[in-house]
Amino acid sequence: MNFLKPTIFLILCLVTLIRSQPSTLTIAGQIFDQHPMYNNNFEPRGGNLRTGLVEKTLSDNKLPKLISSVTTPDSLNDQGRMVTPALFTYFFSTSGKDLSPNSGANVPIGYDIVLNYDTKKGVYVFDNQAFFPIDERGFDTNKFYRNYTDGSKYHNFHFCLKMNTKFTFQGYEVFNFIGDDDVWVFINNKLAVDLGGLHSRESGSVDLTKLGLTKGVTYDFDFYYCERHTTASTIRIETNMQVFCPFEDYCGVCSGDGSTCCNKATTCNDGKKCTIDACPPPNADIKKSGSKITDADIYPYCSHTDVVCDAPDLCTNNACDENTGNCKTTPITCNDQPAKCLLAQKCDPNSGCIYKSKCDGVCDTGACSNGDCVQKTNNTCANELGNNPCMVYSCGKNGCEAKPKCPQNPATPCDVSYCEAGECKIKHLNATECDCGCDRDDLCHKNNCVDNKCVPIPIDGTDDGNECTEDTCVNGEIFHTPINKCSGCMTCNTKTGDCDLSDKKCQDGNECTSNSCQATDTLGLGECTNTTVVCGATNTDKCIQFSCNETTGCSSSAVVCPNEGNCLVGYCDSNKGCLTKPRSCDTGVFCLVGECIEHAGGCVVYEKRCDADNGKCQQGVCVNGTSTEEGRCKSENYDPLPFICKTAAVVSTAVIAGVTVAGAVALGAFIYGGKRGYDYWKDTRNVQFSGSNSNPLYEQNPNGSGVNPLYNDNSTL
Ligand SMILES: *[C@@H]1O[C@H](CO)[C@@H](O)[C@H](O)[C@H]1NC(C)=O
Ligand SMILES: *[C@@H]1O[C@H](CO)[C@@H](O)[C@H](O)[C@H]1NC(C)=O
Ligand SMILES: *[C@@H]1O[C@H](CO)[C@@H](O)[C@H](O)[C@H]1NC(C)=O
Ligand SMILES: *[C@@H]1O[C@H](CO)[C@@H](O)[C@H](O)[C@H]1NC(C)=O
Ligand SMILES: *[C@@H]1O[C@H](CO)[C@@H](O)[C@H](O)[C@H]1NC(C)=O
Ligand SMILES: *[C@@H]1O[C@H](CO)[C@@H](O)[C@H](O)[C@H]1NC(C)=O
Q1: pTM (predicted TM-score)
Q2: PANTHER family attached here (predicted)?
Q3: For residue 626, which ligand has an atom nearest its CA?
C-alpha cells in the first residue's frame, strides 16, 4: 500500500490538531491502611454480601455512613460484619488517635489507580486479581504487623480505598465492578453500587443512562472499596466514564483530605497544650520547597485555635491549663479598687463584682479623685446650709455646720456683738438697761433687749444650722447631737432635716447594674434596689449586638455571622439576623469551573469538561470566550476513531451533517466520501489544507475495500 507512508506523514503533521482517546485514565485515590488490632471490623469471622449497610445519600463530607449504629446478633451490621459500628468512619478517614486497641487508628497512603483503555470495548479497565497495593507499606513497614497470608504468602490485607472524582455525563456511560469485599459507589451522591459486607467476588453494574442524569452536566463519582478479610483480594473496574479529579490536596491525592502528608499531631504541633492544632484545609495552596512536600512546607499553613473554656457565670474564671490542656475553673476574686475608692463586697453571678464606695462619710461628697475621697469644702457647706453672710460654714463630725461670724465674748456680756450684712458690730449695754445685769450665771444665754425688757437668748453658736443635729448647751458648752432618724440608704438633709433618698449610697461600682434607693414602709428607711442593666433594650437591628462590662458598661458591636462549613458564608440581615449564602467561586472564565467543595475546604478550580454531540466518537472541547464571542462547547472527533465510529458512512454523514471534524478525519471523508464530499467539507470549513489537489491522496480510494485504511485495526497508527 504505497499511499500509507504519506498518510503517516500527514497524520503526524496533524497530530496537534486532532484528539485521541487517552490510553490511560489515572485516578489518584487515597488508601487507609487498617489493622484488626485497631479496628476490629477487619478480619472478623467470615461473612457474606450484605447490601443496605450504608445510607443511600452521600453527605458533603464524602464519608459513607452506616444506617445503624448498633450491632446485635444477626442484625444488619452483624451480617455485614460491622463489629464496632463507631469505627466505620475510620474506614475512609483518619482517626488522629493513638495506637491503642480499637482506636480506629489507620495509616493514610496516596495511591494512583491507572485504568487502561481497551480499544476493542471502548472502556477503561482496571483489573487486578491479587490486589495488594500496600504490601510492606503503612503499618506493615514494621514487620510486627505482617501476620496475614493468602495461605502461604504474606500480604497487607486490610485496607480501604476511596476515590472522590467527577465526570461530565456524555449520555451513554456504564460502570462495572467485580471484586471483594465492600464496594460502595455513589453517583451524583446517590448509592449506585452496593456490595457491602465480607464476601468473595461479587459484581455490580450501573447503566448511567438509567439514573436520570442530564447530558453535559458534571456529577460526582465516589468510589469506596475495602479489603477486610483474608485470603483473597480481587478488583476489576470497567467503565467508559471519563472521570476526572476536581482537585488534588496539597499531598497530591485526588480529593484527598491532606492526611497522607499531614498529621495534625506531628506536622502541626505548636507545642502548646491550650491550642487545637489542625492540618491546612485540603485546598490550601502550599508551595513545595523541594520535590516532595515536607512538614516544614506545611507547618506555616496549619491552624492553631485556642481551646475555648466557657465561663459558667461572671464569678467564675474558666481558663485552659497550660500544663494539662484542660479547662480549669477558678472563682473570681473581687479586689478593692483603690484608685476608684471602691471596696470589694461580693461577686454576683449575673453582674460580676459588686463594690461599695469608701467615700460615704458625712463630709464626703461621694466623689473620688485619684483614690482620695473628695471632701465637702466650706463653700459646699455654705451652699448646703443657706449661705448666710453672718455665718461661717465648715464640715465637722456631724456634717456641714454653721457658726456665727460674730460670736459673743462671754467675758464681756454687756458688749453684745452682732452682725449686720456680714459685718461684725458691738453694742454696749450698761447694767441697768433692760434690767439684765452684766454678770449673769446662765452661761448658755446672752443678754438681749426686747421692748426694753430683758429677754436672754441662747449664746451664739448654739445653733449649728444643721437640722439633722439636736443642739444643746450645758454651762456654756454647746453640743450638737445627730438625730438618727434616717437609715438604710436614706440620708438626713442638713438644711431641712428630712430624710432624703440617696442613690449615691447604693452605687455598687458595677456599670452593669442599675442602683437606686427606694423608701420602704418604715419611716426613714431606704433600701437599695439593684437591677441588671439590659443593654440595647430598644435596639431593633439584629446586626448589632450589645454587651456589658462591669467597668465600662454597655457597648455595641457588629454581629459577626459564622460560616456553615466551608461552602456557606454567613452574613447578617438587619431584620432576620444571621443567614448564610453559598460561597461564590466564580472564575469568570468559561473553561475554568470554580466550585465550592465542602470536603476540599472551599473553592477549587478545574477545567470545564464538555460533553460531545456523539460521545462515543467525539470529544467535547471547551472554547474560552473572547471579547466578541461567548465561551462554548464544541465537539471534535477522536482520532483514531473508536472502532464503532469507523465506517465511511459515519464519517460522511458527519460531514454532511456539518459536525466539526478534525483534519485527519477530513481526509477519511475525502477518501470515502469522494471528492465531492471533501470539497463540500473544505468549502464549508475554513481548514488550513492548501494545495489539496497536489495531495498524493487526491485520487480514488486505492483498495476499494470499503474499509477505511486510516482506521484499520492493524494499522500501526
Ligand atoms: C504477629 O505474630 C507474632 C508472632 O506470633 C506476635 O508476637 C505478634 O504479636 C503478632 N502481631 C500482630 C500485630 O498481631
Ligand atoms: C473653713 O472653715 C473653718 C472653720 O471656720 C476654717 O478653720 C477653715 O480654715 C476654713 N477652710 C477654708 C479652706 O477656708
Ligand atoms: C445707762 O445708759 C443709759 C442710756 O444710755 C444712761 O442714761 C444711764 O446713765 C446709764 N447708767 C449708768 C449707770 O451708766
Ligand atoms: C443591692 O446591693 C447592695 C450593695 O451590694 C446590697 O447591700 C443590697 O442588699 C442589694 N439589694 C438588693 C435588693 O439586691
Ligand atoms: C471590661 O473592660 C476592662 C477595660 O476595658 C477590661 O480590662 C476587662 O477585662 C473587661 N471585663 C470583662 C469581663 O470583659
Ligand atoms: C481558558 O482561559 C483560562 C484563563 O486564561 C486558561 O487558564 C485556560 O487554560 C483556558 N482554557 C481553554 C480550554 O482554552
Answers
A1: 0.71
A2: PROTEIN PSIB-RELATED-RELATED (PTHR31137), PROTEIN PSIH-RELATED (PTHR31137:SF31)
A3: 6
